[in-house]
Queue: 3 jobs
Job 1
Amino acid sequence: MNEILKKIGRIGIVPVVVLDTPADAVPLAKALCEGGLPCAEVTFRTAAAEEAIRSITETFPDMLTGAGTVLTTEQVDRAAAAGAKFIVSPGLNPKIARYCVEKGIPVVPGCATPSEVEQAIEYGLDVVKFFPAEQAGGLAYIKAISAPYTGMRFLPTGGISAANAGSYLAFDRVLACGGSWMVKNDLIKAGDFDKITALTREAAAIVREKRG
């Protein structure tokens, strides 16, 4: 497994971040690091994503900052140039998967079916995003789908919360969980980074409880 993905596994929870303004990037990153989750998937859902990734990677170079909701190879290039250490996409786009593999960029594509998992294996990948996790069958589905694919690990995202993250993390085929409950948009917009730090500490405690 790629070293970046191993580090994500050790952190245990990947905060999924939507930023409307790049000015919020550094204080948010500081809150996540102080809370014990030095990792962020900054989604390309807004125009601020590229600049936000650049600001975070320049200020917190040791933080695992990646790009999410990546839908084109052009976004891969922009994210990588800004310093993103990994790429996450909501589905398995063969063009993006091949492009990242060829460039040596860790990529975690979204998969929700055995066929998609097998496609990921074909590209040499050993970690996939399971999305939308809760809506697509939750932990029971991951346990069922993972059985034939002994070398594959899953990063469930979608509907993950403080209430159910622990049950996912207790399953050894789950590399980490993606979640946004500690980085909710209203908290970011309000500048309530102390609350984000507190919620992040609670999330980090869930990881410690389940994985030591």
Job 2
Amino acid sequence: MNNFNLPGASRNRLLAAALLVLGAAGAAAWYAHNQKADNPSARTERKVLYWHDPMVPGPRFDKPGKSPFMDMDLVPVYADEQAVDASVIINPRALQNLGVRYAKAEIGAFPGQLEALGVVKADEKKIQVVQSRQGGIVEALHVHAVGEKVRRDQPLAELYSPDLLSAQEELLLAKKMQDDGKSNAPLLDSARTRLRLFGMSVQQIMQLESTGNVLRAVPLTAPFDGVVTEISVRQGMTVPAGASLMTLADLGTLWVIIDVPENQSAWLKPDLRAEARFAALPGHSFSGKIDQIYPAVNAASRTLKARIVLDNTRGELRPDMLASVTLDGQEESNVLAVPSEAVIATGKRNVVIAVQDGGRFVPVEVAVGRERDGRTEILKGLQAGQSVVASGQFLIDSESSLKAALKRFDDDSAAPAAQAAPAQPVPAPHQHHDHAHH
């Protein structure tokens, strides 16, 4: 029934009953307030023993403030209650349904090998740029595409230059004067030096002196066996002095640039033996050594680069191939480790869920070291033989974090509620009762 349709007398009786209930509640609050004011022990504030971070319950602080471990306020621990930690108890049946598995922190041998991925790159020490020593016109181009293989002393291009042509004629004139019995050795040497500076080889200069035939377009030759990696000109182009015509790379040796995780890079050393394998060459491996460890860490991937030099005289490897590299380090014993899946990395900390007596779980912050074969080295936070959760720990960690957050919320909201008091005393119940009769 809709109460607003009640007759007037019934509605008045209902309002009177509601006023009586409200008056009783107000009287109870007023009585409790007066009792607390008259009782000195009730006014006594709870004594704080210390403040702590529920997520890192070990350290204690003598004053409130922000936690140095997490982005949260420190929680007080009072003398009249047992300190609340961040542990949780989960029903064994629920644990079984979640498929929670356990493992122990064990001391044992830690493999000295490290697996890493790398990319093949050209040896930058064996890259050379072919330039024009003087301005001129590219009359012929014998290399037309990137990737072409060239041999040492193979002609790459032919360059016509008026300055080079004039320098050849000066050499022939000095040579003729010497043949006529005139002593001009300094002039002859100067002409030869000028041609060398213009890029002519010793063989080309000797041929010029023996034949007397001036070369209209001087060929530019390859300085070594290699591959063309860049072409900057085309036939018929006019180029200034010092222009880059093309770039060559010697692929007889190659680099493999590997990325090593930052937390595993401390033991990297030059000359550390490495074995590289390639998907394109199954069953084959290439041996090398770490040639250089790069000084900077990649800020995005948190990895450190290292360089390995491989011999490629057979030409089986090519730049940009993907390599799987095994680094052979010294095996270490007496290393405390847990399964890597037991470690929760939050970005700010590393946590494992430790198993305590009575089916209690508690998150423990740990310092981790190297990682090998699915196991992670524990530097601080656990002891040998201590059990940890190896699967399902994310649910337990979330439950523990929620409990600590709720406890902090309760502590923060309890203080304002305890301090709140009515500004005016609530009238006594008999006043409401008399007023109702009047």
Job 3
Amino acid sequence: MIYSLRGKLALKELGMVVVECGGVGYACKTSYSTVSQLGETGSEVTVYTHLYVREDAVELFGFATLQELSCFRLLISVSGVGPKAATSILSDMTPEKFAFTVASGDSKTFTKTKGIGAKTAQRIVLELKDKMSAESIGGSVAVDAVSFAAASSGAVSSAVTEALEALMVLGYTQGEAAPILGKLDQSLSTQDMIKETLRIMNAKNTR
């Protein structure tokens, strides 16, 4: 399994980038978001990858962040959602918005992506929320959120609970996300809390 690629950005176009590593160019299909985040052709870049294997093809997908890769993997785990639909969705929304959309059950937002109908959008929300429940996320989030937020600030906002659920959609544990959320300004919006928590986590990982 190819975990990531680091090398020279040899080519980028809508929906695809080529990263040259050791003289070999790896073509990665990707979202428009990743294409816009990567630097100019010739610059050194890192992309996090997923090797998608099917009977008639082997395709490599690459993303600028681990969060976007996590969203991609969640999407293709949904029945009826392939990599093309997944990259289309991620071209229209950030990982933070994706996580919040799933956690809040807002299936209509997914229908704004071309090719995603109402039934597919509903399936994405239902299956991913079911996955959260299966991992004992849903039922315990509110209790844990109250516990850590009350201990740190004396109060808990609905934004904290929603942000924690959304971060867990992205694969983070309560133990990773809760301490950071508890230190944030409790008046922030849910999406701002998600964005700030991811920024802090990314900063820790790059030290």
